[in-house]
């Protein structure tokens, strides 16, 4: 577990540099008079390349291991944070910002898949959930620290100092990786990857429970994108300064960290699907309320509640995905989930930016809030129908049946 914690430290530091650059870039564009739809384009660029390459990156990492991809990740994010410093907006305009987004987003997908692959490879069935919980907590901590530090550097110094802070986190991550790189595995699950390549990419969608897990994951990803994009836009719209916006984003991450720390206790009392359905409904209601307040205190409460709700989703989604997916196709399922998430990161900021510029921020909050609630009821109904059709009294048996059906289908294909 000590090696896992070192890997998580590396991922947390690099994530802090990445998330800081994203917050800084959003505020930097708004500070220089760019409209909300341009901010949407900027955030879409962060995820555009990852949406296209994530599955291919995963296959490449399975073949060659994680060392070269992680080196690429560190280099890309470091260069991304340095670009605005050497090519300031006052002289070069908005183009360097797009380069920053492209490099940082592409770099982080290499680090994310590599890190998650390492955690899965170096843990057992008994310790894997703990490893991923620690990783989620590290991301929550870095997500809390990054925006606050960035906000203070922006207000006390300037945007270039803030980018320098993000660069410092990326360099620290690179140093940690250099110290732990010896002893890392040379390859990850190469034999399983060959089996995955024989199947159609979206064949797993034929299994209802797997499809429901991926749909829930996509909805959560959409909700996460909305808060990352619209809180800076909405905060600027109602006159909040960079420090206040940074604290709102930080409270979100602190509460997501707290709920993940409590997840081992909560999981003893609530099933995964119960938590996920609650997350979807709770988040939807919060977004319906959000546009009705301009009070900073109420916004802190809403951001904290959103962080706690959405923070509970990832460990449970990953746990369910492992339960309902045949063991030899787990990598494929995670690859599809990553692709869906990055597709959401690419498309939704454009829509949010359009709504923010043309219709208003409230439209983005209300439309996604309603979608989350409707999605929750749709998934809940589908799960009940699956259990009812198969005569199963609980979801554990439904999951077991899903795995049996998948194995039968595999035998039939052979």
Summarize the structure.
With 414 residues, the chain is an all-alpha fold. It has 16 helices and no strands.
Account of the protein in words:
- This protein has helices at residues 2-31, 36-64, 67-86, 89-92, 95-122, 128-156, 159-180, 190-196, 208-237, 242-269, 272-289, 296-311, 313-324, 330-359, 361-389, 395-413.
- The protein has 414 residues and is mainly α.
- It starts with a helix and ends with a helix.
List keywords for this structure.
single chain; 16 helices; disordered C terminus; 414 residues
Shape field: globular
Question: What value does the average pLDDT take?
Answer: 80
Q: DSSP strand (E) fraction?
A: under 5%
User: What is the number of E strands?
Assistant: 0
Sheet with the most strands? none
Q: How far is it from the N-terminal to the C-terminal residue, by CA?
A: 39 Å
Fraction of helical residues: over 70%
Number of helices: 16
N-to-C series of helices and strands: HHHHHHHHHHHHHHHH
Q: Which blocks of ≥5 consecutive residues have pLDDT under 50?
A: 192-197, 410-414
Rg from Cα:
21 Å
Main structural class: mainly alpha
Q: How would you summarize the topology of this molecule?
A:
Layout: H1 2-31, H2 36-64, H3 67-86, H4 89-92, H5 95-122, H6 128-156, H7 159-180, H8 190-196, H9 208-237, H10 242-269, H11 272-289, H12 296-311, H13 313-324, H14 330-359, H15 361-389, H16 395-413
Helix pairs in contact: 1-2, 1-3, 1-5, 1-6, 1-7, 1-9, 2-5, 2-14, 3-5, 3-7, 6-7, 6-10, 9-10, 9-11, 9-13, 9-14, 9-15, 10-12, 11-12, 11-13, 11-15, 14-15
């Amino acid at each position: 577990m000590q090696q896992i914690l070192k890997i998580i430290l590396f991922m947390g530091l690099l994530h802090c540099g990445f998330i800081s650059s994203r917050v800084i870039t959003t505020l930097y564009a708004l500070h220089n008079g760019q409209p909300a739809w341009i901010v949407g384009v900027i955030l879409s660029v962060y995820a555009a390349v990852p949406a296209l390459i994530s599955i291919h990156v995963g296959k490449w990492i399975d073949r060659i291991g994680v060392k070269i991809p992680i080196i690429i990740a560190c280099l890309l994010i470091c260069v991304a944070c340095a670009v605005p410093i050497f090519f300031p907006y006052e002289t070069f305009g908005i183009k360097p910002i797009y380069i920053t987004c492209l490099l940082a987003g592409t770099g982080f997908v290499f680090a994310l898949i590599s890190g998650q692959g390492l955690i899965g490879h170096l843990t057992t069935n008994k310790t894997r959930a703990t490893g991923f919980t620690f990783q989620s907590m590290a991301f929550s901590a870095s997500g809390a620290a990054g925006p606050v530090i960035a906000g203070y550097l922006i207000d006390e110094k300037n945007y270039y100092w803030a980018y320098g802070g993000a660069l410092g986190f990326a360099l620290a991550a690179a140093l940690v990786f250099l110290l732990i790189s010896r002893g890392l595995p040379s390859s990850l699950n190469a034999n399983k990857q060959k089996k995955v390549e024989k199947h159609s990419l979206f064949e797993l969608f034929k299994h209802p429970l797997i499809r429901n897990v991926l749909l829930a994951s996509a909805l959560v990803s959409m909700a996460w994108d909305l808060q990352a994009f619209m809180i800076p836009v909405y905060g600027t719209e109602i006159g909040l300064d960079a420090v206040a916006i940074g604290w709102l984003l930080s409270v979100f991450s602190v509460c997501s960290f707290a709920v993940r720390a409590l997840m081992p206790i909560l999981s003893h009392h609530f099933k995964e699907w119960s938590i996920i359905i609650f997350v979807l409904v709770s988040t939807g209601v919060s977004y319906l309320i959000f546009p009705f307040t301009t009070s900073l205190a109420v916004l802190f409460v809403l951001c904290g509640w959103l962080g706690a709700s959405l923070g509970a989703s990832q460990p449970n989604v990953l746990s369910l995905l492992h339960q309902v997916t045949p063991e030899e196709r787990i990598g494929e399922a995670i690859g599809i989930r990553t692709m869906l998430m990055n597709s959401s990161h690419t498309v939704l900021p454009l829509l949010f930016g359009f709504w923010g510029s043309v219709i208003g921020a409230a439209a983005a909050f209300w439309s996604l809030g309603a979608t989350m609630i409707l999605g929750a009821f749709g998934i809940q109904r589908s799960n009940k129908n699956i259990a009812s059709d198969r005569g199963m009294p609980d979801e554990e048996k439904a999951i077991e049946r899903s795995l049996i059906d998948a194995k039968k289908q595999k035998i039939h294909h052979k």
